[in-house]
Design brief:
flat, 2 domains, two-stranded antiparallel sheet
């Protein structure tokens, strides 16, 4: 697919996450999920690699879904324990909706990650976002892999000392991870201080207005994608409203 304007990608993210929050039906959430996957495939994002990296969070998502299923009453009881409904169709539906929403949000994050930081800042500036806020947004996205790298390097240090974390019992594993949090955060803080010094040396905010080397210009394809995405979202909201599956605030 042709390289599209970062403002169009931001529109995709806003529309997908908004529809995911407003929808309260598994079928509609499934459609949004398929659209999210299609957009990621068209943008050639690292979809499979992201799924492999996020597999560690699947257990957490399933745990939250099960807890939500236990707290929601209604429907047909599937797994009873005495007078307690361990699992019901209503609870299962709510837990499935939760998993679909989280998947859509994660896929939307991949769309943002497919854009270079410089282009994302330019796109935010074109939307009249102050440069400081646009720069902070770009830096915050970069610090996610930095935190992961810091944590992974400390896990490797433990492995080099002959400790296999995977073979530890759950209480010991939690204890090891708790010990790693503090030095990981300290390493991230040190990197942020180095970044702040680098920004000061390069004259960050020395002038009230910045000049840009490149000017973003939306082409015919970009405008067409904007129109199609807005029409799809409007039709989707109208369909949910007609079938009564639109979340009411």
């Amino acid at each position: 697919m042709k390289k599209i304007d970062p403002r169009v990608k931001l529109l995709f993210i806003v529309l997908l996450t908004t529809l995911a929050v407003l929808a309260k039906d598994v079928i509609y959430l499934g459609i949004i999920l398929l659209v999210s996957i299609s957009i990621n495939l068209c943008l050639k994002t690292e979809l499979l690699m992201a799924i492999k990296r996020l597999r560690h969070f699947l257990g957490v998502l399933l745990f939250i879904a099960i807890v939500q299923s236990l707290t929601i009453k209604g429907g047909t009881v599937l797994i009873p324990i005495g007078n307690i409904a361990l699992l019901s169709t209503k609870g299962l539906q709510f837990s499935l909706e939760f998993i679909l929403r989280m998947s859509i949000i994660l896929l939307s994050g991949l769309i943002a990650a497919s854009t270079e930081g410089r282009e994302m800042i330019d796109g935010l500036l074109k939307l009249k976002i102050p440069y400081e806020l646009a720069f902070m947004t770009s830096i915050s996205l970069r610090f996610i892999p930095v935190f992961s790298e810091e944590f992974r390097s400390r896990l490797n240090a433990i492995a080099m000392r002959g400790i296999d974390v995977k073979k530890l019992s759950l209480p010991k594993k939690v204890k090891v991870y708790a010990y790693l949090i503090s030095p990981t955060i300290s390493g991230c803080i040190m990197r942020s201080e180095e970044l702040a010094k680098s920004m000061q040396v390069r004259g960050f905010r020395a002038y009230p207005k910045r000049t840009m080397l490149r000017e973003l210009k939306m082409g015919v394809v970009d405008y067409l994608l904007v129109i199609l995405s807005l029409l799809f979202s409007a039709a989707f909201l109208a369909g949910m409203y007609m079938h009564g599956v639109l979340v009411a605030f």
